[in-house]
Amino acid sequence: MPAGPADIPGEITTLLSDARDGRAGALDDLLAVVYDDLRALARQRFDGAAGRRAGLDGTALVHAACERLLGDGGRMLSAQNRRHFYFLFQRAMHDALVERVRAQSAQKRGGDRRQVQLIEFQADDATFAADILDLHEALEEFRQFDSEGTQVVMLRFFAGRSLEEAAEIMGCSFATARKHWDYARAWLHERLSRPRATE
Fold first, then answer.
1. Which of 103, 108, 114, 172 could cysteine-pair with 176, CB 3.0–4.6 Å?
2. For residue 1, what pLDDT band results from cuts at 50, 70 and 90?
């Protein structure tokens, strides 16, 4: 089982501070601390049969997410602590995944029709077999009225965190995280079960 964020208390926060202060090697040390954990979690999510059918690779997605965080105005270094870092990473992973699927769809269909990219997302007590772009659109819609619930989903699906870890990263109680998760799971199931509009 990969080390979760609670297994390295203070280390990510300290290394982020060191990197912002310009300490030589601090950024490399930070990536060394989180990389194996993030890669293992991403491979669990995306290197199965569904991921292969969609042309996805967990390690490549971690690299793409890290590149986004390092290149987007140094967004990785804007993280103030471990909690903030994992928020930024799950968003970067999500954005990298959506960008890759859009590019693959345009290439396969000549850019004139969307290619459905079904993948299975598992989080203990919930499994969604969803088109990645449909899930992205549903999460953007859900974010408008439950941003905390969206964060729970993102942390669970895209950063591979358990509900306990998601609560710890979000700084809320397990009961609160569970409430958001139960609502988000029911809402997404209904939303993603709707018939696809004809294109």
1. 172
2. very low
Q: Would you give the end-to-end CA distance of the chain in angstroms?
A: 43
Closest CA to 82 of 148, 15, 176: 15
Residue owning tokens 């669990």:
44
Which burial class, exposed, middle or buried, applies to 56 when counting CB atoms under 10 A from its CB (0-12, 13-18, 19+)?
A: buried
Domain definitions of the chain by residue range: 9-192
Q: State pLDDT tens for residues 137-190.
A: 899 999 999 999 999 988 888 777 888 988 988 889 999 999 999 999 889 888
Task: Tell which residue, 38, 21, 40, 18, has the closest CA to residue 29.
Answer: 18
Q: Tens digits of per-residue pLDDT, 61-81?
A: 888 888 888 776 567 777 778
Task: Tell me the C-alpha distance between 96 and 181, whole Å.
Answer: 23
Q: Tell me the pTM.
A: 0.71
Q: Are 111 and 100 in contact (CB under 8 A)?
A: no
How many residues are there in the chain?
Answer: 199
Give dist(CA 32, CA 119) in Å, integer: 29
Give me the amino acid identity at 71.
G
Spatial separation of the C-alpha atoms in residues 91 and 82, rounded to whole Å: 14
